[in-house]
Amino acid sequence: MALCLKQVFNKDKTFRPRKKFEPGTQRFELYKKAQASLKSGLDLKAVVQLPPGESINDWIAVHVVDFFNRINLIYGTMSEYCTEKTCPIMSGGLKYEYRWQDDSKYKKPTKLSAPQYMCMLMDWIEMLINNEDIFPTRIGVPFPKQFQQVCTKILTRLFRVFVHVYIHHFDSIINMGAEAHVNTCYKHFYYFIREFSLVDHRELEPLVRMPQ
Q1: Which of 22, 90, 183, 202 is the most exposed place for a label (fewest CB within 10 A)?
Q2: What pLDDT score was predicted for residue 102?
Q3: Quick check: pTM over 0.70?
Q4: Could you tell me which residues are annotated as the binding site for Zn(2+)?
Q5: How far is CA 138 from CA 27, 35, 57, 61, 131, in A?
Q6: Which residues does the annotation place in the binding site?
């Protein structure tokens, strides 16, 4: 019997604090619109489409932050099953290995355990989405030219969290009664990145059959 989602996904277990939208801002209104569409039961392929008259960069920014929050929560709940011992390499099965590079501490692709990789990833994303020069929140402040390029990198790395969780921890997802919720989150993420061509199709190969 599946557990109540409030039991499965305890907000205290988020891997990093949730990033919130400031009430009264355009970004907050877009977020509410996106959430209302999700809860209405509309087809996820329709939900991700850019609303008429809205800025594509604002729409992408809202979803990047929302996906960070959701995936952060999923992994936070799963993290007790993902340890240095169970997952000494950040991978997606035998065929795919993900190495970390951030041009700061790790200037070259470096082999890390899955928990280490996740820590570096969430810290890195949090730093980016809190950077006003990349994710501006003030009215009238434009997005930088490289904004979508940065989002592509964020979303590509967040996709790898799904790869690792599905391939290495799917039994735990089922045991927690979280399968339906994780699947919906994944489909939402997948349709969004495909709608705006934000992740290279080669990155999607480990879970190529999942949306079906």
Answers
A1: 202
A2: 92
A3: yes
A4: 82, 87, 164, 169
A5: 10, 22, 14, 13, 12
A6: 82, 87, 164, 169
